[in-house]
Design brief:
It contains two helices and eleven strands; from the N terminus they run H-E-E-E-E-E-E-H-E-E-E-E-E. It is mainly β. The two termini are 30 Å apart.
Length: 206
């Protein structure tokens, strides 16, 4: 089921009206990201030979889905930098220090969407503003809509999975160390990953 639909390139007649998928329209609403069933992570090349993977354990966000007019859909995510976890405490401590994220001064990383578009099938691209430290730059996240379901507790859920490649230096994360054999300790390119499960808010009582 497509979350976003392409507009026809043919000029509509005055009697035509865009068809609305009832199942898609039923998804319309505000969703809260469920952090216990979601993950926001990253992968970065280390010492030119291997990858280090990590995630942020604390994050929150809201998705607004408009199934009748997808252009009105949006996403807002806030990530607590101090919750970073790469499996090595000393490395995590270095990442939250002034050499990298400076979490004491800049405790959150945020994303605010500005545009949504369909790439084909269940593939989409969400474009918005990513803020790390005191730098805000545009970011496009390629996503796959994983569908919707009602869980055993009666919660209506939607799921998305996606990724985006960034250059950390674009956000002022420039610390590095040269290797004796050539190259650097930490690559500039970082892959961000998103695996999101969100719960639909109850409709307000009239």
């Amino acid at each position: 089921m497509a979350l976003f639909t392409r507009k026809s390139t043919a000029a509509p007649t005055v009697t035509e009206a865009p068809a609305v998928d009832p199942a898609l329209a039923a998804l319309t609403g505000t969703y809260t990201i469920d952090p216990s069933h979601s993950s926001i992570g990253f992968t970065v090349r280390h010492a030119m030979v291997t990858n280090v993977r990590g995630s942020f354990g604390e994050h929150e966000g809201t998705l607004v889905v408009d199934g009748t007019d997808p252009a009105n859909s949006s996403a807002s995510i806030d990530v607590k930098i101090a919750s970073i976890d790469t499996g090595i405490a000393d490395r995590d401590g270095h990442l939250v220090s002034g050499d990298f994220f400076d979490a004491e001064k800049f405790p959150h990383m945020t994303f605010r969407s500005t545009k949504a578009e369909q790439l084909g099938g269940e593939a989409y691209r969400i474009t918005g503003d990513l803020t790390i430290k005191d730098v805000t730059r545009p970011l496009a996240i390629d996503l796959e809509f994983n569908g919707s379901a009602t869980d055993v507790y009666g919660n209506e859920r939607v799921g998305f999975e996606g990724s985006a490649d960034i250059l950390r230096s674009d956000w002022g994360l420039t610390w590095n160390a040269a290797l004796e054999t050539g190259g650097v300790m930490v690559s500039d390119k970082v892959k961000l990953t998103f695996d999101i499960s969100a719960i639909k808010a109850a409709a307000p009582v009239a």
